[in-house]
Amino acid sequence: SDGNTLPTIASLTMTVGLPADTKGTHMSRFIELLEAQDGPVDQQGVKRLLSKMLDRLDAISGTIELRFPYLVNKTAPVSGVKSLLDYEVCWRATISDDNQFAFCMQVNVPATSLCPCSKEISAYGADNQRSHIVIAAEVVEEVGIEELIAMAEKSASCEVYGLLKRADEKYVTERAFDNPKFVEDIVRDVALALNDDPRVHKYVIEVE
Fold first, then answer.
1. Three-state SS for 164?
2. Partner residues linked to 13 by β-bridges
3. What is the 3-state secondary structure (H, E, C) of 103-139?
4. What CA–CA distances, in Å, run from 6 to 10, 84, 91, 128, 192?
5. φ, ψ (nearest 5 deg) of residue 189
6. Is the Cα torsion angle 59, 62, 32, 103 positive or negative in sign?
7. 174 burial class (0-12, 13-18, 19+ CB within 10 angstroms)?
8. In this predicted model, what pLDDT tens digit does every residue of 114-163 receive, in sequence order?
9. Average pLDDT, the chain
10. Distance CA 106, CA 34 (A)
11. Roughly what angle, to the nearest 10 degrees, separates helices 145-155 and 183-195?
12. pTM for this one?
């Protein structure tokens, strides 16, 4: 949404729904559509590609799903050292039988959760866990990938960085200790953030 482009490698799933009297579809046309695609693809670009796919294959409904790693150059909180962290992203665009368009974006965000129970019963220290926060949001306007990532990371005990120096390790340890969260707490906090965003129509949140 900021005009920048990111090179990545995506796995695509392309499916179409056909009229009852149609025996099958032309598989090669899926590849032809992809080969004709040039330049960066954004969320609106996926919608246009989906419409072309239905026209090209004489289909009444269809879905295009892209799964790809999204790399973010993160800055450590104290030392300022930079490192890349990858997030799993899925874009899914669908046109239904009644010609309704829907776009869903899913992000899988690694984060730290510190157990409130462990902190409560310990004289010092507490149990830290690596958590994965999965947000699948159906949006009615474009939402940036990093916006959903930020919602997830702000709801955790502490975010994850690719590279930390000693001072950073102290910061993230203390940050998590001061911000204990059960997985239920993380889900509720992400839900509150999504509820406040008018671009989000509906969503599913999972934390493991």
1. coil
2. 65
3. EEEEEEEEEEEECHHHHHHCCCCCCEEEEEEEEEEEE
4. 12, 13, 15, 33, 29
5. -70, -40
6. positive
7. exposed
8. 999 999 898 888 888 999 999 999 999 999 999 999 999 999 999 999 99
9. 93
10. 22
11. 140
12. 0.90
